[in-house]
Amino acid sequence: MASQIAAGEVIDRPASVVRELLDNSIDAGSDRIVIKIEEGGKRHIRVKDNGVGMSKDDILLSIESHATSKINSVSDLFAIKTLGFRGEALPSIAAVSRIEITSRREDQLAGYRLQVAGGRLKSIDEIGSPTGTMVEVRDLFYNTPARRKFLRGVKTETDHIVDTLSRIVLPFTHIQLRLDGSGKTLLNLPATESILNRFSDLIGRNVAVSMMDTFKEMDELKLRAYLAPPDLSRTKRDRIFIYVNKRSIRDKLITRAVMEGYGQRMMRGRYPHVIIFMEIDPSLLDVNVHPTKQEIRFHNNRLVYQTLVSTIESTLRKRFHSILDLGQLKSGDEKEERVQGMVIAEPVREYSGTEQRKPVDYKIELLKETPLVKEVPQIIGQLKNTYIICQLMDGLLMIDQHAAHERIVYENLKNSYKSSKIERQSFLIPHKMELSMKDGRIIQKRLDQLARLGLEIDHFGGSTFLLRSVPPILINMEWEKFLLDLVPVLENEGDLSGEKALDRLLTIMACHGAIRAGQRLSREEMIQLLNQLEELDLPTHCPHGRPISKKFSYYEIERMFKRVI
Ligand code: ADP
Ligand code: MG
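Above: the input record for the complex with magnesium ion. Below: its predicted structure, written as tokens.
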């Protein structure tokens, strides 16, 4: 009875059985795991691995309470490197189900099968078996009807299993895993080298390809985060994946840090898709906080929190200011092929049964860097002679050509002004302009200052002025209109070399110099515009503060067409 009560802490539904068995298979160094469930795992769960296996004695010991092969000394307990360490899972499962463990070690000829029901040993027999372990759990809670009553329907329990499995197996990309349930394959994960490929198999390509990754390394902490753009948010926080030394955990502190990192980019009540991997020296952690081992305690909370917030914040700031960075994707992995802008996972790794495997040791190892590659948007065309429409790897991009070009002209003028290198292009025949008396007077007082901006204007007499040269980027603008807009600024601002006044002047120059809405662009002109935009640092908005572009992710588009929910 006591064992059944204790079991309740570890095992509360089929998904927790799957979690414990999967943890064990991973700890055993498996790289191929096949799981089968019936009736949402309530009737039958089978986990088969190709790990190191167990001897007859190991099998018998495995169902003894607090027998674990993973901890040899007290000091091990303070530096846990495996997923399991409490030696509680198998005895807990055995206490509340009919369990059968079949296993063979590679160095032994025979395998063994043990049968236990309700915590009582029924048999242990020699049996032919491949190397590795198969655990079958039938009729969960058959002997604790009260608890069985609390189990939910097949669909809910299945969903829990899929979710649990997905979370656990995400970082173990070298493991090939399949989950079958009620005659269907629910998950089929090939081995891969890339986290994003695995994420793509689990959650979907659209999200995976939109993610950017960031990496931070410090003495006590290594952090790698994969962040989806804020517009792919969800109403639930179920896509925040947190790992510490590859162990999937639930942690309020880290979730809070993620939300703070996204800050105002994320609407209230929405949550991002995020994967956080932290590697911390196991001696600076306490993982033995909760029987399910899904909670941990950091010795240095503040460091973890602050590192996360600042890394996420600065990554998002850098990436989502630049419109052309919206669709970047990892690559550099030779086995990956890009087809039509998508990452194709490499083929399933062949299982080689002869390979010598040791139980895995989750020593602090650097996760593989996945360099980012900038994506060049593919131009589809021009809408209403006003918007450039582009295809991105993860969505559709609309660019307001005037706002975009305005920004380009503005940056160009500003940079050359700051480096005192404003170029001038002279007109063969100067432009003659008639102004009102009042405007004439205002302009006349500012001729020197305008000259410094590359606008060379001479007073011809009366209220007539001659425009002799302009910065080349402005060569096509309408001069009278431009001067009319310029006059109020000249009138109101005292010193034109001040930052604010200069900004206003440059803004007006940019606005007049930029391509207009409604102007037809050739393909080459559009390409040129995109290239120029890409060279700038912050082109999300035009100098007036209007947005330059709007992206529609495929996720949004597919939602619009009800292909996804
Ligand atoms: P823990 O994982 O905390 O050590 P468990 O009750 O989950 O405790 O498992 C008990 C022991 O049984 C493990 O320490 C391990 O030695 C052995 N074991 C369980 N599952 C497997 C498996 N799939 N392959 C090899 N050994 C296993
Ligand atoms: Mg275990």
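Notes for the reader.
The two ends are 45 Å apart (CA to CA).
Residues 389 and 407 are 18 Å apart (CA to CA).
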